[in-house]
Amino acid sequence: MESSFLGINTVNFITSFLLATAVFLFMFMMGALMSWSERKQSAVLQDRIGANRASIPLPGGKKLALWGFINNLADAIKTLVKEDFKPRAYDFLMYNLAIFFAFVPATITAAVVPFAGVLKPAEFFQAWYLKWIPWLPEFFTNNLPDFSFRVQVADLNVGLLFIFAISGLNIFGAILAGWSSNNKFSMMGGMRGASQMISYEISMGISLLGLIFIYQQVDIWELVQAQRELAWGWLPKWGIFLQPFAFFLFLFAAIAENKRMPFDLPEAESEIISGYFTEYSGFKMLLFMFAEFITIAFVAVIVSTLFFGGYSVPYLMADGFHWPWGGFTQLSHATVVIMEILSFTLKVFFFCWLLQQMRWSLPRFRYDQLMKLGWKILLPLSILNLIVTIVIVALGGF
């Protein structure tokens, strides 16, 4: 397909660029929202007001506090102007490279996750509630009438393996930060992070093998499509229904990988100050903390995609709702796509809330308890779940 003024390669490049920008902004904004909810949600749980002092003055003596969100902006500005203290003796390259490994992987891996189904611009902008931009439907109808794309930055046929490969790089941030800082507390935090990653990465991977055996896919797009099918004519084949035990195993292991409470031993303030980023200050420390919040959003994205159908809405197809009792409700293409995006976003918000709730509800494990849980409980259970799943698949149970 060639338009009168743009080649298809140019159109595809522009589309990919816009999708990549949108995904990056989504993850960035989720990280900012998590940094706000870290304070407000803990305040609600502890029956206090929380951060609310910073505000923007308005005419008439009023102030705009946005429920404490302005405090986050004030803190970001404060860290930007703070002096960047560095250890007296440290490895300059690894000290700075650690921030890259902590921040980038969670954002990159979201690129293989579909945020909605197939979008057809010529049909999408025909909806009545998008008529405020009248030139867009005419533009696509006249120049790109058959153009469509998946709402997914990178369509990899090994997307699940890509997620494991790139997300595994995250631990290098803790290891390099701990080693390069030349601080015994930082080094201990880095060592804890490394052993914790090894302990829980195995259980997390094995817990997902059951899904791979059932769906026969490692392509993220195809995994979501498989979850849109129905079992017994009415139950969506979401991972949570077919592999409920694997869901809990994966969730616990993912929280441990993210080094969040109750698995935050690599940065336990009451034991080793701030762990692997003890020697970081100012904007560098902010990046480490922000990377942790983005990783929360990433865990929520992966859990929603693999176990809760991703962007899919039960019984919603490309043309509308196909009800299990035989009815049909037709919807416009734009309505379907918007509902898919909203569905995915709400699922991600829910699991972000859940992870934050666990953060402020559970006590920290001792280090020996952390290792025992990973090697003596989660790993055997994940292997048992895999064996049972293989037997059921071999007998034609799914």
Please provide a written account of the structure.
This protein has 398 residues and is mainly alpha-helical. Helix content is 62%, strand content 5%. It has 15 helices and 9 strands. Strands 7-8-9 form a 3-stranded antiparallel sheet, with no helix packed on it. A two-stranded antiparallel ribbon has the order 1-2. β7 and β8 form a beta hairpin. The longest helix has 38 residues, at 8-45. The chain is globular and about 65 Å long. It starts with 7 loop residues before the first helix and ends with a helix.
Brief characterization of the structure:
The protein has a three-stranded antiparallel beta sheet, with no helix packed on it. It has helices at about 10-45, 70-80, 90-110, 120-125, 135-145, 160-165, 170-180, 185-215, 220-225, 240, 245-255, 270, 280-305, 335-360, 365-395; strands spanning about 55, 65, 120, 150, 230, 235, 315, 320, 330. By secondary structure, it is mainly α.
Task: List key phrases describing it.
398 residues, two-stranded antiparallel sheet, mainly alpha, 15 helices, single chain
